[in-house]
Amino acid sequence: MGHDPFREAGSDTFVLATPSGNMLWSSDDTVIRGLFEQHPKVDAPVEFLKFWNVWGPTIASVQGAEWKVHRKAVTAGFGPAMNHTVWKETLSQTQKLATHWTEDHQAIVPVVRYWTSRLALHIICNGFFGMKVEWNADNQKSLPTGHKIALDAALPKFIENLAVFVTVPTALLSRLPVKKFRDTYENFTEITTYLDEFRAKVLNNVEAVPAKKSKTILESVVLSEVSEKNPLAKETHQIPENTLTLINNAGAARNPKTWKRSKISKERRNALSDSPALDFDPDRWLDEKDQRLANWTAFGAGGRVCPGKEFANIELTAAMATLFKLYSLELVVVKENDETDDMAWKRTRDQAIRMFYDDMEANITIGVHKDIPIRIVERVV
């Protein structure tokens, strides 16, 4: 839908009045930023976020004093030492990934999303748990005693099937004769065991861990839990109290009042599904006045801004800098029938542009659910 409902309504913000209460829906950057920045006066509707509580309450699903305790515990692990760890690990993992692509896959990468997700997972495993994950599965160390699945294999599979875990009672997952259910339960129990083991390891070294210059996120959270007295756990409009407000990310990301649109004919836009890729303009961020444009979309803002924002920014910067310093990434072009090279390239490019609208999938992450093969080419210096 994108911004279409708001254009048809003639407003970027409107209120739906229902018997169960009012609901405000907005794609306006100013309104959304105001909602974020009024925390805790405006808070998250945690009753709708209980699905995050896989292993207990989380920073996203609690409010008030309990939220403060959670945030203090989580943010304790983010800082200069962790930023340094993320930068070094991202450079190392990205270079190893590029080498893996060129040596083991003949420089052709048919499913980019799989590899970029694994790259993020490798870096998170190192920053959160102190685990070093390698790309070549043949070089993986034997599984720890009592485990059937490696943590870096169980995590992405569980996240992929999170909807199954949320909707099917845990007691039934291992009993019902459905492979996806049983696999989800097995991944859940494996991850739970790993987390319990990591926590026990920190507690067994609780006197030595505080002296470490660089702690993992998990070490910082466990130490915070141990040390805390209360462990984990132009016009204006007045929005009525107890109004549920919905931030429309898709609408805000396509709002022409916020984002300048490229000069492309209506016919061309229609042919390419009016894909957001047509308006991709990284140069906009070089202008200081534009640097606050809807920058809440990925990490939130205000009091509930994601504590891992800097972690993710460093990871992304290091990965992109490493890749594009040493390599070029190209679409894999395959000519059909009597196409010229130029015709084949334009068809492949247009197909990729359309996919960035027609084939987007939003789950815990947002990405293209179909494959866009790319070729990695080493730069000649």
From TrEMBL:
Transmembrane segments: none annotated. One of its GO terms (molecular function) is iron ion binding. Gene3D superfamilies: Cytochrome P450 (1.10.630.10). Its cofactor is heme. Pfam families: p450. The keyword Cell membrane does not apply. It comes from the Eukaryota. PROSITE patterns: CYTOCHROME_P450 (PS00086). The keyword Manganese does not apply. Keywords: Heme, Iron, Metal-binding, Monooxygenase, Oxidoreductase. Belongs to the cytochrome P450 family. PANTHER family: CYTOCHROME P450, CYTOCHROME P450 12A4, MITOCHONDRIAL-RELATED. This is Putative Cytochrome 2U1. The lineage of its organism: Eukaryota, Fungi, Dikarya, Ascomycota, Pezizomycotina.
